Amino acid sequence: MPPGTITVGVVNDHARLVHEYETGIGVPTSVIDRAPDPGGHLAATLPVWSLAAGSIAALTTAANRMRDAHGLAPVAHRIVPERIAASFSSERLFRTEGRPPAIFADLSGFFPTYDGWVRTHANYPHHRARLLGALNLPDNAPIDLAVAQLAMSRAEDVEEAAAAHGAIAVRVRTEEEWAGTPEAIAAASGPLVAIEQRPDRAGSLSRSDATPFQPLRGVRVLDMTRVIAGPVATRTLALLGAEVLRVDPPFLPEISWQYLDTCQGKLSTRADLRAPVFEDLLASADVLVTGYRPGALEYAGLDIGVRPGLVHGRVCAWGEIGPWGARRGFDSIVQAATGISIVEGAPSVPGALPAQALDHASGYLLAAGVIDALAARTYDGIGRDVRVALARTASWLLAAPGRTLNHPQATPPSPEATVAHGPVVTAAPALAEYPDYAWPAPGYGSNYPAWPVRTR
């Protein structure tokens, strides 16, 4: 179905995504039951529900392949719209002492320019400083001055200046404007999730204490991700039984509510990846998940060769090839650049998806790919790279059939699909068989940079 095609009614076709995922990684396609009618959950012009339910179904079919690799019976996972919508819209349910978070900073959002719109992302202080630098303004410039400077600038000039300064801003495009560019062609190429073998092989197969509901028990995951997609992937691995140790830089704090929302079931430490302790952690890991731009780890001197047979999951914004491969980006930025913002709004007033669905779906797809790579490694011990990109997920959503012009307003996520731990309220897991994560997010950086001692 070409871009812009309009159908009426809610399309409920999540099997398409599962089969595209499975075909892309070279495993037999699964029989997928039809999902329950989602009603207004994640309602949008684009088939967001198909993306959301499909990414969860891809995850559950991968988990069953892992169970099969360990001789365990499959689990009949259920697709529950309320739980999936709550998980994908978790920032709308998050509360600390009853207060919602400030999701976007004052310099993050849509801003009019001389000839169109740009979308910026400046939630982190260093990104804000870089964006102001790209606008030739000092770090302490007031928001009104920045808005005025944007209004007097060409959108394309803002985009290029931001890229040159390591800031994050893109010109809001239509999908037709995006589709013909080299960066769009590169971002849409290749499978939805890429799994590639490396030449290294583990000397002995991984320890496994797998159980039906914890098929990853005994797997050690080193988590070097931030924001949403990567942390969602590693939180999912923890839900399925993996030992997940999140490592943050010593001097670059995470946004506190984001950390609390995505670090359930994990341990948290702070360490420099160039320090000897990090190499020790990596040498005993089964999985490394990173959210750095392509080439950044190699530039820092990280050598994953210290752990033969490692599964390396990688998420980035634009893909690892093409002219935008090294650029920074977030879900909202990818929506704006690829035309999604115009589809969900209008050229005169851009809009957005009802959730940061590119992030969440990419996170669940990355978790699925890591699990399938681990399942394959139980047979051959071979190390593998697993890659997802937000722009590749966006290209799937834009090409998927089932656009709805007269869709209902998206239903707010249900407060009943939450869990509370003291003053912190977060969305419950998207997998309905799990009432909660193993534990709430620990204190930021509160754990030693070491794996837990195993007693057997």
Describe the fold and architecture.
The chain is an alpha/beta fold. Helices cover 36% and strands 14% of the residues. It has helices at residues 15-25, 48-69, 81-88, 90-93, 125-134, 143-151, 155-165, 175-179, 182-187, 229-239, 256-262, 276-283, 296-299, 331-338, 340-343, 357-380, 390-399, and strands at 95-96, 109-113, 116-120, 169-171, 194-201, 220-224, 243-248, 267-270, 287-290, 311-316, 382-389, 418-421, 424-427. The strands form three sheets. It has a seven-stranded mixed beta sheet. Strands 1-13-12 form a three-stranded antiparallel beta sheet. Helix 2 (48-69) runs parallel beside helix 16. Mean pLDDT is 92; it is low at 1-11.
Secondary structure layout plus pairing:
Elements lengths: L14 H11 L22 H22 L11 H8 L1 H4 L1 E2 L12 E5 L2 E5 L4 H10 L8 H9 L3 H11 L3 E3 L3 H5 L2 H6 L6 E8 L18 E5 L4 H11 L3 E6 L7 H7 L4 E4 L5 H8 L3 E4 L5 H4 L11 E6 L14 H8 L1 H4 L13 H24 L1 E8 H10 L18 E4 L2 E4 L29
Parallel strand pairs: 6-7, 6-9, 7-8, 9-10, 10-11
Antiparallel strand pairs: 1-13, 2-3, 3-4, 5-11, 12-13
Distance between the amino and carboxyl termini: 55 Å
Q: Strand sequence of the main sheet, in spatial order? A: 5-11-10-9-6-7-8
Low-confidence runs of at least 5 consecutive residues: 1-11
Outline the biggest β-sheet. 7 strands, mixed
Q: Assign the structural class, choosing from mainly alpha, mainly beta, alpha/beta, alpha+beta, or little secondary structure.
A: alpha/beta
Task: Tally the beta strands.
Answer: 13
Helix content: 25-40%
The rounded Rg comes to 21 Å
- Principal-axes geometry comes out as globular
- Average pLDDT level: 92
**Percentage beta strand:** 5-15%
Strand/helix succession? HHHHEEEHHHEHHEEHEHEHEHEHHHEHEE
Number of helices: 17
